[in-house]
Amino acid sequence: MSLDTPNASPDPQTGRRAARSGGRAARHAARAAKLSDDMRPIRPGMSGGTYKPMSETDVAKIHEAALTALETIGLADAPPSGVEIMVGAGALLGDDGRLRFPRALVEDMLALACKDVTLRGRHPRHDLDLSGTRVHYGTAGAAVNMVDVMGNDYRDSTLQDLHDAARITDVLDNIHFLQRPMVARDITDNLEMDLNTIYACAAGTTKHIGTSFSDPSHMPDCLEMLYMIAGGEDVFRARPFMSNSNCFVVPPMKFATESCETMEMCIRGGMPVLLLSAGMSGATAPSTTAGAIVQSVAECLAGVVYVNAMAPGHPAIFGTWPFGLDLRTGAMTVGSGEQALLTAGCAQMHAFYGLPGGAAGGASDSKMPDMQAGWEQMCSNVMAGLSGLNMVYEAAGMHASLLGFCHESLILGDDLIGQALRCVRGIEVDDETMALDQMAQVCLGTADAPAPGHYLGTDRTLSHMERDCVYPALGNRMSPKEWAENDRPNLVQNAIARKEAILATRSEARFDAGLDAQLRARFNIHLPA
Amino acid sequence: MSLDTPNASPDPQTGRRAARSGGRAARHAARAAKLSDDMRPIRPGMSGGTYKPMSETDVAKIHEAALTALETIGLADAPPSGVEIMVGAGALLGDDGRLRFPRALVEDMLALACKDVTLRGRHPRHDLDLSGTRVHYGTAGAAVNMVDVMGNDYRDSTLQDLHDAARITDVLDNIHFLQRPMVARDITDNLEMDLNTIYACAAGTTKHIGTSFSDPSHMPDCLEMLYMIAGGEDVFRARPFMSNSNCFVVPPMKFATESCETMEMCIRGGMPVLLLSAGMSGATAPSTTAGAIVQSVAECLAGVVYVNAMAPGHPAIFGTWPFGLDLRTGAMTVGSGEQALLTAGCAQMHAFYGLPGGAAGGASDSKMPDMQAGWEQMCSNVMAGLSGLNMVYEAAGMHASLLGFCHESLILGDDLIGQALRCVRGIEVDDETMALDQMAQVCLGTADAPAPGHYLGTDRTLSHMERDCVYPALGNRMSPKEWAENDRPNLVQNAIARKEAILATRSEARFDAGLDAQLRARFNIHLPA
Fold first, then answer.
1. ipTM of the prediction
2. Does any domain span residue B42?
3. Is B220 in a helix, a strand, or coil?
4. Is there a contact between A329 and B19 if contact means CB atoms under 8 Å apart?
5. Is residue B135 within 8 Å of residue B330, measured between CB atoms?
6. Taking CA atoms, what residue in A is nearest to B57?
7. Residue B110 and residue B304: Cα distance in Å, rounded?
């Protein structure tokens, strides 16, 4: 069953094998007409939910267990302001300093919680609607290294690396948002790091940005910068293009005191918050998948109480981010099947609550963008998408169990996530797609025409080509013969070339000269002008 | 959020970072006790079905459309023997030479069809129970090239390559069967090729084998060889260790005349058959996912009628194998999201009929075992597993859109499929796994002990370590520091080394000397003794 067609000559432009005669010119003409956004085969915010790792009974059990944990174990270490807010709403402060949450309180606050969060881009075309099981993919993390692909090495990550990641994200269709994926280790002052992180991200992309702040005392300056970039506080509040990724808990079942203070200031400042619970299954969370989900759900429910007791309906993302641990070594692992299940199980809980939710998917344990990276990134990314996770964080570029970020992998991730999104879109079943009429025509012919015996070049096939099929940008589909004739294209080398091409162009996201001068006059910006 | 633990020293044997103090010795002790097969975290035949790409209504629509296609379009080109068999059962032969199938006939034959096929290994420990949504992964295909990983090249595949693939498959836990993945191109005589294919496969593995035969006239010799290997015809019939992968249709909607004759001889000879319909979506099948599924279901239902009209209840696998086509070029593509959906949608139809089913998953368009290969292989493999596909064919080692087979990729596929199987196993939710008692103990302590504040080293975590977690053999989880200290292990280089180690050992599957001498006396065996 050789499937090659050796007689077809390769296209001189693409090096691709030509199609069977007849339909090719028509296909080229069809491709020349650029598709409008709503005709593209994949888009941000396609709805998942066809994959349900747990039964409805199991989901209800997890919910019940989380409520029990909140009622009987509760959380320690809330800041005084948080204690006041939550006790005011009905939480109970124990002699052991732990806040416990009666079930009715949790249910009341769930009723108040914002269900239809839209995360804003600096440009409205990048707004993200987090309702239902709509799926979005983006970066995230706090990697401390950059992957040096050409040198087969790791080095410290810098502010320029972060800015470059923002610029690359800006032009990749399937990376829908930029959460700060790495730390600018070349900036030693923490306030300057926070400010320059905002600058480097926002000057690189008009997509929605997420970041964290290293100290509550930084918030006035950081908000001032955000308001300047937006063109005024009211403008920012109307369309907050940045959300606060906030590790408000230290699992198991403790509030992160200072992060909670930061969160309160972000809420007052008009920023959506990501309520991020990042337990490690086997270390800071139970080793079992179900147990880790119970604990992270309980912690995020405490966050829902906190936010809505303070500011009812404030936009918040239910950020259950349990991670895996390699129990042989005690080292973190994020590329496993267990990780993919943790993430997909969390997505199912978000859907149960009807709350916008996020979790980590798509990160790899591999050090380089190799086959392992490919299988690990796809496994959790596609399962997250199929389970309907609203925000898939860490979805591209993340290596070495979150310790390294890789620009080339980010670029390849665009292809990988495009494929995952095609799977999320799923199978449309109707009279047109079932194609019985076409089948009859192709097999039996009509009164006017004999049976062609194949579907090539039919109108239905041509219209399907661009509207329903996803084509990889760098993924290679050549036959071995074409591949050899085209100097054996190398995936990683092509990603390097694409990175260089992206970074050589002038970014559409950069600030206009007046704003840039204002920002540089007010703050110490480390990126060259 | 640096997650490295720089103070921990690497294990001198493994180079892995040591765990936090305390639990490590206990973990090592726990690992020393080898797990029995039923305690392993993953096994052949775990049940999927948590992913359902189509609604129940859509599944019913596909079924109805397939019945309509069989009733109104029917299939051409049945051999005279097949016409006699199917007309005898109630099919209608039209003036146009097409056999059409009344709905009641299809439903009657579905009722007769064997629902609980067990495919036999030469060793019973490799038997495959295809009931329900039990999932098995294996090789398949008819690649004409071998991937030369070290030379970054392709070359013709040989009988020795096939035998080596069998030997490698034999020792990989997560490759559950060997269907002939490549053609022995160094054997020019087709009968000798068929015979040597049987020999090379069966002498390399005691797992279940699938193969095809290039001409019906080869069947007497091939059956003779199979009976000799089994130790007698009756022994083979009792435990047929080989099934016939039979492309009994030429889509769209035509029987493959000679293959049907072969199929009849296989059925009479006691071999299970794989009813394989391999349409290309956009060429020999409708371009839409739903349409391609309708057609392949219709074709396989015709096969069910054929088999059961001839031999009621004969073991047959519902082999809907629709493939994708890159509509820009007319070239085959098997690594896409569309392909993964085709395969998962087919699995859902198999479950609807309650029939053992198979489809292609895990093949890649990439030429080398690179990141693209990883993401493509995982995408369709994990979706096939989650959808509960009984037999995932082409699941490992397959490159260049089925044109090339790669031993190193087969070895890496064992890790990849192990991860997919972990996902198939899913999330267990019960009082033990939800771990509320542990959470209370870890957070609150007990009367006798203070709260440890973490889950490391608890009994629950230790028992979880080996029974619930899958560890990759070659996938690397080191920190960048460990990785650098260990000479930057390279995934593909390690796969090459493993291949060489496997092929350097004496195979447990090889024939005993007496049988081997008999086979070599009776047939021209091209493999060196």
1. 0.94
2. no
3. helix
4. yes
5. no
6. A429
7. 7
Indicate the residue of B141, B418, B454 with minimum beta-carbon distance to A283: B454
Q: Report the CATH number that the domain containing residue B265 is assigned in CATH.
A: 3.20.20.480
Task: Establish if A345 touches chain B: CB-CB under 8 angstroms.
Answer: yes
Structure tokens at A138: 């983006």
A303 at interface of B, judged by CB pairs closer than 8 A: no
User: How many residues are there in chain A?
Assistant: 529
Q: Report the residue from B287, B372, B435 with minimal CB separation from A461.
A: B287
Domain total for chain A?
1
Amino acid in the structure at residue A493: Q
Does B363 contact chain A (CB < 8 Å)? no
CB atoms within 10 A of CB A108: 16
Residue range(s) defining the domain that contains residue B174: 110-425
Tell whether B1 is covered by a domain: no
pTM, full prediction = 0.94
Chain A's closest residue to B294, CA to CA, is A434
- With CA atoms as reference, the chain B residue closest to A453 would be B252
CB contact under 8 A, A285 and B455: yes
Strands A128-129 and B316-320: unpaired
Per the CB < 8 Å rule, is B51 touching A51? yes
Check CB contact of B153 with chain A, cutoff 8 Å: yes
Q: Is A338 on the interface with B (CB under 8 A)?
A: yes
Kindly state whether residue A501 falls inside one of the protein's structural domains: no
Contact A426 B51 (CB under 8 A): no
Pick from B68, B328, B461: which is nearest to A436 by CB? B68
Closest-CA distance, A413 to chain B, in angstroms, reads 10
Task: Quickly tell me which residue has 């300057």 as its tokens.
Answer: A192
B201: Cα within 13 Å, side-chain hemisphere: 29
DSSP secondary structure letter of residue B75: B
Whether B103 is in a domain gets the answer no
Residue that has been written with the tokens 């097969």 in this structure: B37
Distance CA A25, CA A501 (A): 30
Per-residue pLDDT of chain B (529 residues; tens, 9 = 90+): 333 333 333 333 333 433 333 444 444 444 444 556 667 899 999 999 999 999 999 999 999 999 999 999 999 999 999 999 999 999 999 999 999 999 999 999 999 999 999 999 999 999 999 999 999 999 999 999 999 999 999 999 999 999 999 999 999 999 999 999 999 999 999 999 999 999 999 999 999 999 999 999 999 999 999 999 999 999 999 999 999 999 999 999 999 999 999 999 999 999 999 999 999 999 999 999 999 999 999 999 999 999 999 999 999 999 999 999 998 888 999 999 999 999 999 999 999 999 999 999 999 999 999 999 999 999 999 999 999 999 999 999 999 999 999 999 999 999 999 999 999 999 999 999 999 999 999 999 988 889 999 998 777 777 777 788 999 999 999 999 999 999 999 999 999 999 999 999 999 899 999 999 999 999 999 999 8
